[in-house]
Amino acid sequence: MQTRKTDVLVVGSGFGAAAPALRLAQAGLAVTILEKGPMVGPGQYRQTQDPKYLLKHIKGLGSEHLGLTYAEGLGGGSGFYEMVSLRAPTIAFEQQDDCGRRLWPSAVSRETMDPWYDLADSMLRVEQIPEDQVPRNGQIFAMMMARLGYSCERARYAVRNCLGSGYCVTGCIYGAKQSLHVNYLPQAVEAGATVTCDAEVTGIKALKLDRRDPSPLEPRYRVRCRIGGEKGEDVEYLAPIVVLGGGTVGTATLLLRSSRGLPELSRHVGRHIAFNGSVKAAGILPDDFPDGDMYAGRSHPGMISYEFLESRGITISTVKPLPLQMMAAGRLRLADVNPTPEWWGAGHVELMKQVRHRMIILLSLGLTPPAGRITLDRRGKAKLDVEGLAGMAEYERETEAVLRSILDRNGCRPISVESVDQTGMPHPGTYFSTAHQTGSCRMADSPDLGAVDAGGEMFGYPGLFVSDGAAIPSSLAVNTSLTILANAERIAAGIAARYGRVPAAVPGGPSRMAGKT
Amino acid sequence: MEERQSIGVLSDRFYPLARYSDFLASDLDRRAKRQYRRPFASLSLDQRTVLLKDALASRDRTTQRLYTGAVFLTEAAVYGGIRDDRAGCRLTGFPGGYQLVPRTKVDGTLTARLSGLSRSLDGNPA
Ligand SMILES: Cc1cc2nc3c(=O)[nH]c(=O)nc-3n(C[C@H](O)[C@H](O)[C@H](O)COP(=O)(O)OP(=O)(O)OC[C@H]3O[C@@H](n4cnc5c(N)ncnc54)[C@H](O)[C@@H]3O)c2cc1C
Ligand code: SF4
Question: Is the beta carbon of A167 within 6 A of some atom in ligand 1?
Answer without folding.
Answer: no
